[in-house]
From TrEMBL:
Protein's name in the database: BLUF domain-containing protein
Pfam families from the UniProt entry: BLUF (PF04940)
Superkingdom in the source lineage: Bacteria
Xref: SUPFAM superfamilies: Acylphosphatase/BLUF domain-like
Residues in BLUF domain copies: 2-93
Length: 125
């Protein structure tokens, strides 16, 4: 069964481009192995992530997220069955302020001054 999970959390510390690049590279590799696709928004010290995949894969990812020291105050916004993937091309697409762009990062979609990105609407709860 395909499911979608959306959560919000607070970064344990302000993320610079290099730690964000490392986080995203790790997430892209792990998600590809687990059959998970999704989008991560990082803005003003807050993460909002929408992931989709098989139930067992999302269970494993969720347990990993709960133990990850890079964020805290994790709030599950929604978890429900999904009829189709919203991010079929991205093991982890990413949006943040355009000044945080790291050259060579696949799936980067900058946010504008009001915090909007082409992909953020796909994560709406």
């Amino acid at each position: 069964m395909l499911e979608r999970l959306v959560y919000r959390s607070t970064a344990s510390r302000e993320m610079d481009p290099r730690p964000l690049f490392d986080l995203l590279t790790q997430a892209q590799e792990r998600n590809a192995r687990l059959g998970i696709t999704g989008h991560l928004l990082y803005l003003r010290g807050q993460f909002t992530q929408c992931v989709e995949g098989p139930t067992d894969s999302l269970d494993a990812l969720w347990q990993s997220l709960l133990r990850d020291p890079r964020h805290h105050s994790i709030e599950l916004l929604v978890r429900r069955p999904a009829e189709a993937r919203r991010f079929p091309e991205w093991s982890m697409a990413f949006s943040t302020d355009s000044t945080m762009f790291v050259h060579g990062l696949k799936g980067f979609f900058p946010v504008d001054g009001s915090g909007n990105s082409p992909l953020v609407g796909l994560c709406s709860v």
